[in-house]
Amino acid sequence: MPRTSRVVLPNHPHHIIQRGHNRQVVFVSDKDYNYYLENLKEWKYTLGCKIYAYCLMTNHIHLIVDPGKKIENLSLLMKRVSGRQTRYVNKLEKRSGTLWEGRYKSSPINKNEYLLACCRYVELNPVRAAIVNEPEKYKWSSYRYKVGMEDHYWLDLDQSYMDLGLTKKEREARYKEWVKDAIPDGECELIRKAVLRGQLTGSHRFVEDVAEKIGRRIKFQGQGRPKKK
């Protein structure tokens, strides 16, 4: 059965998931995680992409990436970073073959509706997996940077995050409070299904607008915007 072509949009963030081949372990030591992040940083700058969030789990990764004007930069970024990690692990373990599943999953995000929610979804992954009980206790995600615990100068801060406060301290405090606040019903399921199915993360209007721009019908599985409190 032929694969459906991936929807990639210029100047839009995309939620990406890539898993280890047969769900095998990808990251074992701190050096493994750091090597991936160093390559992610290098290719972000080389290709002019933006990285809004990340979470590296033992056997898969979550990223929020904006490819900029050139949509091909999304696949180039993933190809370069994943390829280097494969060669690095193969050399360490004196093995050959693939490290990752053949195709990463991605979902374009409506930045005004869901970007901040997708960042929260990504950064709470270790909590949902019961690895830690608080997101700040997990060192391999972008959360610690956004609440002022680490200095990742290469990460990008989206406008929704910047609107949380007038000062850096205020934004960090409000983001921490927001991430730990109650999540609207259905938000996690909508985000999860969108990326696993390769659909858009956004409202029905967003899906219709994108379909009109690219001249292609897009399936919609959602419930509109997250409810405001």
TrEMBL record:
Top-level taxon of the source organism: Bacteria
GO MF: DNA binding; transposase activity
InterPro entries linked to this entry: Transposase_17, Transposase_17_sf
GO biological process, one term: DNA transposition
Location of the Transposase IS200-like domain: 9-125
One matching Pfam family: Y1_Tnp
PANTHER family: TRANSPOSASE IS200-LIKE DOMAIN-CONTAINING PROTEIN, TRANSPOSASE, Y1_TNP DOMAIN-CONTAINING
Protein name: Transposase IS200-like domain-containing protein
